[in-house]
Amino acid sequence: MKAALVGVDGDLLHQARRPTGRERGPDAVVEGILDFAAELRAYGAGRFGEPASAAGVAVPGIVDEGRGIAAYSANLGWHDVPLRDLLAERLGSPVALGHDVRTGGLAEGRIGAGKGADRFFFVPLGTGIAGAIGIDGRVEAGAHGFAGEIGHIVVRPGGTPCPCGQRGCLERFASASAVSQAWARACGDPDADAADCAKAVRSGDTRAQAVWQEAVDALADGLVTAVTLLDPRTLIIGGGLAEAGETLFAPLREAVRRRITFQKLPSIVPAALGDTAGCLGAGLLAWDLLNASTTSRR
Length: 298
Known about the structure:
Elements (H helix, E strand, L loop, with lengths): L1 E5 L5 E6 L8 H23 L6 E5 L2 E3 L4 E5 L4 E4 L1 H9 L3 E5 H12 L7 E6 L7 E4 L2 E3 L30 H4 L1 H12 L6 H9 L3 H25 L3 E5 L7 H14 L7 E4 L6 H20 L2
Parallel strand pairs: 3-7, 8-11, 11-12
Antiparallel strand pairs: 1-2, 4-5, 5-6, 8-9, 9-10
């Protein structure tokens, strides 16, 4: 878990981390979140002379933002947790709940790599792949909270099975974990990962280049589908795989460019906020909540 106190302009005033404790079960995870938030609020009161005015929390999985419910997370093992209400009761302040990728996208769009872009699409390449659709300073959740799930666009029909039930999903080929697995098989080292693959690409290893190009081609296919549907001005690529820098971005830009026909080619840029995006985005959710409350009272 990562937490922060965030100022009105998105300034990080204080940061802290601790394990989720998921090995002790979902109830322990929820209690850990509540305790962590309460400690952060107390720290803010002592350090800055007043507690935080509101809280924002971003969680993985399926999130019902309107009702404030963490509906499902395979990694954390919870179902239908009324997290917003639980936090509001513990803190005694307003709470906003968001999806982790959409919340990170909100921060990248407002104060990060997408600042100034009226339409952007944020895609972090990590254990899996998700996306956040940015429109005029907000992030679109969709009718059921599933908007932006680019990782489950089928790019290789009949390909590798995905836990979602489909075959050939983008995240089975272009996520950091997929590249790690492919490179481990190719080089014979079970401990090799995507960073090792990128390093081997730069050294001219043809096996690594083949693995890398397969991932780049799959990613380009998925991104062009997103460009066709969304017409973003900027594609922001983040997550662990983006840490390869131009080893990823140079071939990716070229692969997308080759696939574009009638569509307008967006700029393709690395994310700017790294692993602070989620905390900053949660802070922005809290500030949005306060601003909306102030506006409604006028």
